[in-house]
Amino acid sequence: MGRAAVFDVDGTLVDTNHLHVTTWWEAFRQAGHDVPMHAIHRAVGLASGDLIAHLLGEERASDEVAALSASHKTLYGTYFDRLPALRDAGRLLRRLDQDGWSVVLATSAGGSELAALRRAIDADDAITATASADDVNAGKPSPQPVEHALDLAGVPAERAVFVGDTVWDMRAGTRAGVRCVGVLSGGIPRADLEASGAEAVYRDPAHLLASLEESPLGADV
Questions:
Q1: How many Å apart are CA 54 and CA 65, to the nearest integer?
Q2: pTM for the full model?
């Protein structure tokens, strides 16, 4: 039976979390909202509508949510041609592909943003499939993105490992019944990742690659 290595993208494979913080902060500022950057950072990883509700409250008109999301997308889009992959992100995916894992991305990004992220990783030859925001009804921490990734890979939860950088990732993976690995490259503390379900935590993709044989991805799950 096959096995799947499911990866979040922002903050896990590409160093974009603080770009999201800055561009969300500016989108909120332009709309007249004073939202601290530290609060935005803790919310990164949620889908746009969920992030807005988390930071501003649930009682938001749909046109306001759409306008804020569009503003963030426009601001963030100015970085699409220079998004920086985290060190050894592509090498990690290729190594897992060579080791017989089906590598699947599970991300809240879609469309041109997802295309830019994949260009930054530069490992399309190692990626089996992508579960994007366009494919599910609810984003993380709902298990739907991870469950859809497993469907794309054609493997059950017990044959999969999910790698992410936020508490939302760890909660989504735990709810989907998969083993979870955290990375610190998104800026979330180790203790928070572990409390949310991370079985092991590494500094970044390079550290995970160097420690692969002893990690949950080094075993036949």
A1: 12
A2: 0.95
- Measured CA to CA, the distance from residue 47 to residue 37 in angstroms comes to 17
Tokens of 154: 């054609």
Mean pLDDT value across the chain? 95
- What is the rounded distance in angstroms from the CA atom of residue 88 to the CA atom of residue 111? 24
- The reported pLDDT for the residue numbered 137 is 84
Q: Tokens in use for 170?
A: 């760890």
> Which stretches does DSSP call E strand in the chain?
3-7, 101-106, 127-131, 160-164, 179-183, 200-202
Superfamily of domain 3-15+84-214: HAD superfamily/HAD-like (3.40.50.1000)
Q: Count Cβ atoms within 10 A of the Cβ of residue 80 and give its class: 0-12 exposed, 13-18 middle, 19 or more buried.
A: middle
The full set of domain ranges for the chain reads 3-15+84-214, 16-78
